[in-house]
Amino acid sequence: MPQKFSSFRKSAIEVTTSRPLRDLVLAALHNWNRNQVLRIVAAISVAWVFGSIGLHLAEQGTHSDFETWSESFFNVWVLLFSGLDNSPKTTLGRFFAMVLLGTGVGLAGLFTGTVASVLVEHQLRRRDVSHFEMDDHLVLCNWGPRGLAWIREVHSKIIQDKRPVVIIHDETEQIDLPDHQDDAAFNDVYIVKGDPTNEIILRRARVTTAHSVVVLVDERQREYADGKSILTCIAIRDICKGTQRPNVAVECRNPENRHRLLKAGADEIISSDELGLRLLARTAIYHGMTRVYQELLTVGRDANEMYLYPVPSELVGRDFVEISSMFLRYRDDKKCCLLIGLQRGDEMILNPIGNEAGPVKADDQLILLSRVFLLAAQNLPTVPPVTRTS
């Protein structure tokens, strides 16, 4: 499947609030963080100079460590970062020493925190994006612990054409991604800060040109999580009017909201509770079925999975049984497949009986069970070979 990804430039995304007081506080903190290291150095210098002058004047003639200016400056520097071996003799000198000790501890902690925040900010800025050009990528709305496993699945080693992933979430500090040097699955993973129900945020993530959008349940919303997912689907539908819309897959908490999500624009709806309950029912009747479903749902090397493949023009009009036998005759390598059904519009035709499927149509999709994902441009593993694709 051909893909074209254009270049983009990374920058942090600033999201403001509507509260004036909070805006003032955030602005003050932002201004303080700017050139923070220089401010800390300046604060240390001021404390050092004034502390040296104060202790020299207060302790001169009573304490040998502060008898001269050079001794005072040296010992105050030591006091700021490690304390004094000999305490001051005068009350005023002890007061200066207490202030300097507290100042030293505070400045040391502030310096450590600043360095840590610079490193964290640098890591986030490598991931955060604001304005970029990207096509045919994957968009993940909302974030949770399962997001890491989802990224590892879609960027599995056996996926030949890995698509970039853009995460939309309003609390980016919750997103702790492994470094791509430690885990290659997190190459081409980027973050857009904001609410996925906001159309502006969706446009920043280039949802209109995405291949797929996946909406995870926002656990923070609790019983209203499906409501937020519905609003997200509506926002995606609204910004994609008049354009080709990406496939929208939504995780549903309450199966009763399935029809509402469909009306809002969801293409595929996954209810973890519903799937889990059905799986438990199947395993209660047919023991060991969990291993079968786990094999089919696991993305991994030598794991069999089901794929949808567009019908090649050579197969249009042929019978399902004839096409199935063409796949069955090819069993020589890992590319071999089993044809188990057809996807025809909204209808799923699995294991059709007799002439139930009828002649294969041009807009049908083959449902194949295979260890290897077949690209649309590849020849089908059939006998005789099918070399032309639609």
From TrEMBL:
Repeat listed as a keyword: no
Entry-linked Gene3D superfamilies: 1.20.5.110, NAD(P)-binding Rossmann-like Domain
Transmembrane segments: 37-58, 95-120
Domain RCK N-terminal: 135-271
Any single biological process term in GO: monoatomic ion transmembrane transport
A matching Pfam family: Slo-like_RCK
Key words, A-Z: Ion channel, Ion transport, Membrane, Transmembrane, Transmembrane helix, Transport
InterPro entries membership: NAD(P)-bd_dom_sf (IPR036291), RCK_N (IPR003148), Trk_Ktr_HKT_K-transport (IPR050721)
Protein name listed in UniProt: Potassium channel family protein
